[in-house]
Amino acid sequence: MNTYKDGKGDDTQVCASLYSPKTGIFMEMFTNEPGVQVYSGNFQGVGADAKIPRKHGLTYPKHVSVCLESQKYPDSPNHPDWVQPTLNPGEKYYSHAAYKFSIK
After folding, report:
1. CB-side neighbour CA atoms (13 Å) of 23
2. Kind and range of the H or E element at 27?
3. Tell me: the pLDDT tens digits for 5-39?
4. For 44-84, how does the pLDDT look when each residue is reduced to its tens digit (9 = 90+)?
5. Contacts of 44 (CB under 8 A, 6+ apart)
6. Which among 17, 20, 47, 70 could bridge 97 via Cys, Cβ 3.0 to 4.6 Å?
């Protein structure tokens, strides 16, 4: 859910969540930023990456990870009506993201 309204984000409201039915792990994300970028580990543990030794000699399986990163919208400088990522001299920038984990 996009919690960014009227020029500010509401970091008291959940903006994204992830759930694993296999483990029961539930994660909620809170941020004051307007956008969330999702990265996945789709290619970890495959190809050349499969041969990189990890802790205790283990390797990562395919689809091992996911990351949620709060940010301004991609391509914002090319869309003047979007929230702009420009920070001018003397201005302060505040960005907040929090992640809450629980079990369902």
Report:
1. 8
2. strand 25-31
3. 777 888 999 999 999 999 999 999 999 999 999 98
4. 766 666 666 677 777 777 777 889 999 999 899 999 998 89
5. 60, 61, 62, 63, 64, 65
6. 70
Spatial distance between the Cα atoms of 68 and 52, rounded to a whole number of angstroms = 24
| Residues 29 and 36 sit within 8 Å (Cβ to Cβ) | yes
Q: How far apart are CA 63 and CA 46, in angstroms?
A: 9
How far apart, in whole angstroms, are the C-alpha atoms of residue 1 and residue 16? Answer: 6
Euclidean distance between CA atoms 27 and 101, whole angstroms: 5
CA-CA distance, 29 to 97, in Å (whole number)? Answer: 7
